[in-house]
Amino acid sequence: MATPVSDQEKRKQISIRGIVGVENVAELKKGFNRHLHFTLVKDRNVATQRDYYFALAHTVRDHLVGRWIRTQQFYYETDPKRVYYLSLEFYMGRTLQNTMINLGLQNACDEAIYQMEEDAGLGNGGLGRLAACFLDSMATLGLAAYGYGIRYEYGIFNQKIKEGWQVEEADDWLRYGNPWEKARPEFMLPVHFYGRVEETKDGSKWVDTQVVLAMPYDTPIPGYMNNTVNTMRLWSARAPNDFNLQDFNVGDYIQAVLDRNLAENISRVLYPNDNFFEGKELRLKQEYFVVAATLQDIIRRFKNSKRDSASTTISFETFPDKVAIQLNDTHPAMAIPELMRIFVDIEKLDWDTAWDLTKRTFAYTNHTVLPEALERWPVQLMETLLPRHLQIIYQINQNHLDRIAALFPKDMDRLRRMSLIEEDGGKRINMAHLCIVGSHAVNGVAEIHSNIIKTDAIGEEYVKELSQLQKLNDLVDDDTFIRDISKVKQENKLKFAQYLEKEYKVKINPSSMFDVHVKRIHEYKRQLLNCLHIITLYNRIKKDPTAPFVPRTVIIGGKAAPGYHMAKMIIKLITSVAEVVNKDPVVGSNLKVIFLENYRVSLAEKVIPATDLSEQISTAGTEASGTGNMKFMLNGALTIGTMDGANVEMAEEAGEDNLFIFGMRVEDVAEMDKKGYDAMKYYKELPELKQAIDQIKSGFFSPKQPELFKDLINMLFNHDRFKVFADFEDYVQCQERVSKLYENPKEWTKMVIKNIAASGKFSSDRTITDYATEIWGVEPTDLKIPPPNEPREAIEETARALKKM
Ligand SMILES: *Cc1c(COP(=O)(O)O)cnc(C)c1O
């Protein structure tokens, strides 16, 4: 039952009571001292906090190793169907505390030690965090699953705020070493690029290629208290030792060694775009790199499991019964033509057989509806980089169009719409279409995730089974429980306020409403709408400083893609408004605005449990699901949101009256698109909107540079695709209802309880259970793999039990 902040967040709360036995503590201490001495070569006099972190991490890792080996051995011997989750992003965050919880090793370790760990920030936002949650859930549900991706040397950039602007810093997360990974140079695999296709009498041959090596790094993925440890395998690019030393560069040895960087750049850095397709050659190389290395691994493992069958030629007939590959968006879509290439060119299967096997192997998850996010690779680039794959894609398209033409004769418009190749402008390959025709299952995102506040009112069953949360409904009118829940929230807020004061020297009023809007900065996510509300509140206070006001701390955080000018201007506007509001003595502690620097997984884990009000205010029809919305719900925040993405299901589960729903519905937006959106109309009709916009335009928030926000203003009036003004009035009114309820703490908390009780559906364990049965054809199990200190026969017994099920 994980989610973006992952299941383990809720487990964190429970295990504090300490499952750790005395003998475990003693053993842990021994391991810790041994690693401090032998691994870190330090004694207590010179050891730093970081040394303590590494010593503890290595100790905890030691506890995983036996279970890890045992699990893999178990898979080898029982040969279950394997599930492969292919993703260009795994946004893992920190590992130590979660791993201790999963092993039942959690004890009162100094928080500061956990904080020494670097986030594994190999993701941008929801898509990457989802992949991380799914790995956790697949292990918890006992699936023989693998995550495959790229070991970026630099993850998502670190965001610094300087004079109100976002400044990017490289995320050198491996600088001090990564105790969780194990390099496997012995399993290095070649990946080919460029070259040409030669037609021979026994089929097409891809020749004269340039080779880059893919070095695997394995990270253990422990399930929750079930002794299962799965593998996340990330590939790192290595130049072959003869790189550039064969032909034309002979003699320039130094230059050849320096040029090894060219090959190794493939895994250098994560592209920092969220929901945006940039179309760079290096990115296509990354996408093919992970796909080519992973498929070799998958096929090697498949053939290996057949090693002892009587026949010498291996049959691929059973491939889809043994292998399921899930594509996390279109980023790994090249896996489809790559598997076809392997089947047809290398394994010599006929096309139709190969295609049938391929389709039955793949499933694809779509993550976005924004057109600018859809991957459409230029045919020319594909032809240069992967000429054989382009041929295969053309063949797939030909067969696909033939089928459509047979079904819908003379429907040229349909053929054009459904083609894998788009002809308008330069020729491009529509990767979503490729995924749809190459998969047997296609799904969108929605319904997932978790993380919860500390309480034991319903026992601990919910830790494995979030549907148990429904039991909380019986406690909605229980005064003691209401007090407990609000106390936990108050403690979380206090802790976060202390963190902010310590790290950023900002002081906030812990009894104010924590109104939180954290996610990537995007026009469609409408941080601007929130900003206009803040300005409106400010103007109301200024107009009548003695009028009653429900105090708020508005916290906005998120990274802007470095090349996204408008998103960077939005950050600058928020920090500029904050500067004015926070310094105004008339406002005092009634309204504070914080821009939360460097929002990332480990910061989400701090801010979400401290939130009262969750902002989920995208234009209806633009957020495919969202996952942040679910994390907040599960953590005892109320939602102000539009009827968009999973907000819709949240309202369905909790009842629409238990969320603050406002604004246009999808139909209203569509209607407005037909009639035309007139921003000026709202500006003229709504005095508070007009005042806020006039202030931004006149330099009220940027007195040294009155023109600073002219691009933003121009966008809002003339090309606002996300119709900020159209929802302003309803949003502000809805916020008034929020404030009114917040004045009544008991009623507020009752609504919180109803939300938590309704949040079980959004568990990623629940989602993965559905994927397992509906898409992958595998069965979740709560069987525990016998731990390494039990006799080998125990493994055979568990295997037999599994077969009977
Ligand atoms: C969950 C999460 C996201 C996704 O948030 P949305 O509100 O769904 O966009 C982004 N970043 C981090 C660090 C997260 O934990």
UniProtKB/TrEMBL annotation:
Entries under Pfam families matching the protein: Phosphorylase
Protein keywords: Allosteric enzyme, Carbohydrate metabolism, Glycogen metabolism, Glycosyltransferase, Phosphoprotein, Pyridoxal phosphate, Transferase
Annotated GO MF terms: glycogen phosphorylase activity; pyridoxal phosphate binding
Catalytically driven reaction(s): [(1->4)-alpha-D-glucosyl](n) + phosphate = [(1->4)-alpha-D-glucosyl](n-1) + alpha-D-glucose 1-phosphate
Swiss-Prot/TrEMBL GO biological process terms: glycogen catabolic process
Entry's EC annotation: 2.4.1.1
Assembly and binders: Homodimer; enzymatically active. Interacts with PPP1R3B; recruits the phosphatase PP1 which dephosphorylates and inactivates PYGL/glycogen phosphorylase.
Name this protein carries in UniProt: Alpha-1,4 glucan phosphorylase
